[in-house]
Amino acid sequence: MLRRLFASALVLAAFACGAASAAPADTLDLAVPQAPAPIAVEGHERLLYELHLTNFGAAPLRLDGLSVLDADSGAALAAWRGEALAARGRVIGAQNAALDGALQPGERAVLYLELDLPATAPRALRHKVEFSVPGAEPGQVEGAQLVPRPAPTLQLAPPLRGGPWAAIYAPQWPRGHRRVFYTLDGRARLPGRYAIDFVRVDAQGRTTRGDADIAANALGYGEPVLAVADGTIAAARDGIAENERVSQQTRNDFDRAAGNYVSLALGDGRYAVYEHLRPGSVKVKPGQRVRRGQPIGELGFTGDSTGPHLHFHVADAAVPLLGEGVGYGFDGFRLLGYYPGAKGLGERPWQPRDDGVAAERRNELPEASSVIEFPR
What is the pTM of this model? Predict the structure, then answer.
């Protein structure tokens, strides 16, 4: 009798060990809703895109690691673990929680990826996610294969003249353009995927003259905003008032968040969108043809703006929040320096560029928080 009980216990223990080793990889869904096209940034080809992870199982999944693989060779092109992985993700929902815990049943996380490609770019990418589940050994799943789309061929003229201009965007900001989805007409979109806020600075890094709380004292206030290509005005709005003081600014609903804006059809399925323009400055109307370099408005402080600047992005739809952000580059600008880590704007001088990076840039997107000068 004791022998039979002991044998039964061994069988149950073996079954338990077997169950613990079975990681539920079939419960984690991997998807890349928007296949990226490469953009050029300081001599590198870069992909910006989002990996969506959804837990379809009944147990919480802790995300332990992510690798981006060459789909053909299996070689790892990039990998993130621990805090580096958590910093790239958010859990979608009412709390929009940081990705530092487990992905609960039914939850979705979005991982925001920026990947500099090797000199010989892979044909396709795959993604490997490592995870752990309570009571089970760690598991992994591969999927979400993507083939990058061709890079856009139309390079854009400057949207502004001269400078210096700080090109403000930071992929890591939780509420930055890169990470803010808008759900309108039954679909979530990320219009600001490649958005830049252009802020005028001087050689000492100042952004204003006199009282910094007066919007009109911003160095870039009233600067002409220019058509980046020959094209047709697809949409435009003027007449939204702006506050005299920055401290008076309040939040707006979706419709007024862009303030006064212009959307220029580039003729290749893309639209250049200019936001926060000065009231009364919009010089164009829908359907009007414009020429490259033509003034179309002036930099202002309308809509959801933390200070006077030009918000510029390119998307696949004319209305500011109804398009998916798509890549672009400017055909020429001069790189002057950086605000490392996107810190210090308006508070201290920017740092000169590294001697190893050429000053004259062609057919590129400015690097995050770089300080540049456009042709005059």
Answer: 0.89
